[in-house]
């Protein structure tokens, strides 16, 4: 991905930051998605080996312009919960999402805050929806560059 002190390139106006899902065989899926997404200009941006993942599976991130938007991994059963990350240019939107999702019946899966393991400006909150899907709101701009949310 990027060095820990670098901010990755991302489309500030995009609402979909990234999506992640389980596959039976990450290498087989890499070959498939690499070919299938080539017309969109997407390639493998990053591979995360099993020694660095929570599940012991391999993760691939595909995207373009240096930023992975589609992630898949093996090491978990098929049909396991999906991960969907929504992008915003304002940290207060992340906070509002977290509060609204809890009020709507979601379960906390990570309070709003910086996630240094991704990079120093990765401000995110995570909620489990009623079906157990991991829904994230993320702002990746430095705090001083925060723009007002909707």
Description:
By secondary structure, this protein is an alpha+beta fold. It folds into two domains: 10-80, 2,3-Dihydroxybiphenyl 1,2-Dioxygenase, domain 1 (Roll); 82-143, 2,3-Dihydroxybiphenyl 1,2-Dioxygenase, domain 1. It has helices at residues 26-36, 91-103, and strands spanning 16-22, 43-48, 59-64, 67-73, 83-88, 107-114, 123-128, 134-139. An eight-stranded mixed sheet has the order 2-3-4-1-5-8-7-6, with helices on one face. Residues 1-7 and 146-150 have low confidence and may be disordered. Residues 15-140 form the VOC domain. It holds the Pfam family Glyoxalase. It comes from Teichococcus vastitatis.
In short:
The chain is of the alpha+beta class and 150 residues long. It contains 2 helices and 8 strands; from the N terminus they run βαββββαβββ. The protein has 2 domains: 10-80, 2,3-Dihydroxybiphenyl 1,2-Dioxygenase, domain 1 (Roll); 82-143, 2,3-Dihydroxybiphenyl 1,2-Dioxygenase, domain 1 (Roll), CATH 3.10.180.
């Amino acid at each position: 991905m990027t060095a820990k002190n670098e901010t990755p390139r991302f489309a500030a106006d995009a609402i979909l930051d990234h999506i992640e899902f389980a596959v039976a065989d990450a290498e087989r899926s890499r070959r498939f998605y690499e070919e299938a997404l080539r017309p969109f200009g997407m390639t493998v941006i990053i591979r995360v080996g099993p020694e660095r993942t929570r599940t012991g599976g391999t993760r691939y991130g595909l995207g373009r312009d240096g930023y992975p938007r589609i992630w898949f991994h093996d090491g978990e059963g098929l049909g396991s919960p999906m991960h969907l990350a929504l992008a915003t240019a304002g940290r207060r939107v992340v906070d509002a999402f977290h509060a609204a999702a809890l009020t709507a019946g979601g379960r906390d899966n990570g309070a709003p805050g910086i996630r240094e393991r991704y990079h120093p400006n990765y401000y995110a909150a995570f909620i489990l929806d009623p079906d157990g899907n991991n829904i994230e709101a993320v702002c990746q701009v430095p705090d001083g560059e925060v723009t007002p949310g909707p």
